[in-house]
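Moderator note: this is an archived Q&A kept for reference. The question asked for a predicted structure of one protein chain; the sequence and the answer are reproduced below.
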Amino acid sequence: MATHNNSILKEIGIKKFIPGIAWFFLVLVLIATPGYKLPKVDKWLIEISYDKIVHLGIFAVLAYLFMYPVVKSSLTRKEKWHYCIKIAISTAIWGLVTELIQKFFVPSRSFDLTDLLGDAIGGLAALIFCRIYFLKSS
């Protein structure tokens, strides 16, 4: 098993994951920003729950940036699909972790189940996108 994982990392290369890693840390910085330092928004944006769309978008990009090197690799279609599923699940788990970080460690921020749902849907959206555009059945 370890040999197989090493060959995958060797085949894809860590450099191709740098955009995803950078985005991961950007997300960490954003979620660690205290609530009182966030810009104030218009009431209508709050009423339409714009922040849920933002969560979906941020986490869709995160998942996609990790999926893209996988789908462009020489792995088999089945291997690519399995890795993309793992990335989508990892994205949802990272969403949960970010909500817990906000709840316990970031002033003026809290755990929000609907934010977590947006995060998970973002990972799912990236998975569906990659399935449709890169992993079509031939």
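Archived answer notes: The first helix runs from residue 2 to 12.
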